[in-house]
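Database export, one record per block. Field names are fixed; values are copied verbatim from the stored entry.
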Amino acid sequence: MAIRATRFAVARFALPKNLMKFILAKKERMTRIFTADGLALAGTILSAEPVTVTAVKTADGKDRYSAIQVGQGIRKTKNISKAVLGHTKGKGYEAIREFRLPAQAGNADGAEVGATIDAGVFAVGDVVQVSGLTKGKGFAGVVKRHGFHGGPRSHGQKHSEREPGSIGGSGGRAGGRVAKGMRMAGRMGTDRVTVTNLKVLFVDAKEGKIILSGAVPGRRGTLLEVVSAYFSIL
């Protein structure tokens, strides 16, 4: 299987073994991987450029919790606020994310600001979880948004096949108002979703490519947080 990619010439730094595995990646497309046993597995190709550690927070420091903050991509500094530039020492990043370390991961004392993490931090067989924003659908009705069946096609129905029906706005159930949480038409998509128990099927650190089993949230180009399955993401 040929995967087109851009080569990244960067220096690699090894993080301490007690720290969690994580990286920021962009969704490319889905593909199919054949195992040695002849099984065909669906997978998603992710483009993972190297990320740079921009801050290290420790439980015994002023932040009172352990976390590693990383920056990914390049952005013009004229489009970044002075507060962020001061934090990143004048470097412009396209995205900055923070990964909190739980107690079982140890402290972040071993990580250094300026260290670079690439796709090679993961290995085939690792189980990860992926978080990102789902595709935006715009304004959608109740049939598409909530799976309503709509009204019957007979018994005098004419223009109400996809209508929601009564919302209970009269006296009684909610006392003359619409009950909180009522499923109605509205904005659909662009929700933060985390998919767990995805297995790493392929890793190419040189090309910056990772293939995960199954599907991940978002459209092509969506920025995703890939992290060890038993850790949390901020």
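Remark 1: The two ends are 35 Å apart (CA to CA).
Remark 2: Helices lie at 82-87, 142-146.
End of record.
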